[in-house]
């Protein structure tokens, strides 16, 4: 009886994992600092050699949700190799975009690059952070420096500093303006919150904050 129960428990846990996988990057190096945004993959997307849908097709990206694999012209690969961030529960799969041209965007994935039709699946970083950060909050990358964990009166480092934090904590987004976010963070050890401006992206393009999806 115990063996039967144990087998059932293992099967249940495996099922929960298989149908509830997600990934959020932990370090800023995972995000190309020259990237412009992300592209949402639904089921299948055709990849072109040049920024034209009449150019040569070089790849087809297809999601296999059952196996949790991505099929491409070079075979099957893991979600982690292709997607910048994903959630199988929410059916969200995003690939980094590194360039734009007319109605197409250039993807960077699995050590490959190629062009796809942007349609309504392309989010510039600012829009992506606002949509998902507003809904689910933002988090600091693990390699964020303490000097980046500060709230300012205005979206400018020369303005008055409202609060400084010596370790990462949840960030509740209110508004995005350029590379800055108007957000609230909990004060030291109590239930109060401080509202101010914080950078979500450095001037060199590296990221400080990222949205939960």
Task: Write structural notes for this entry.
- This protein has 213 residues and is an alpha+beta fold.
- The chain folds into 2 domains: 20-120, no CATH class; 128-211, SH3 type barrels (Roll).
- It is 15% helix and 41% strand.
- It has helices at residues 2-18, 79-82, 125-136, and strands at 22-23, 37-40, 44-48, 57-64, 69-72, 75-78, 85-87, 92-101, 104-109, 112-117, 122-124, 138-140, 150-152, 161-164, 172-177, 180-186, 193-199, 209-211.
- Strands 1, 2, 7, 8, 9, 10 and 11 form a 7-stranded antiparallel beta sheet that branches. Strands 3-4-5-6 form a 4-stranded antiparallel beta sheet. Strands 15-16-17 form a 3-stranded antiparallel beta sheet.
- Mean pLDDT is 89; it is low at 1-19.
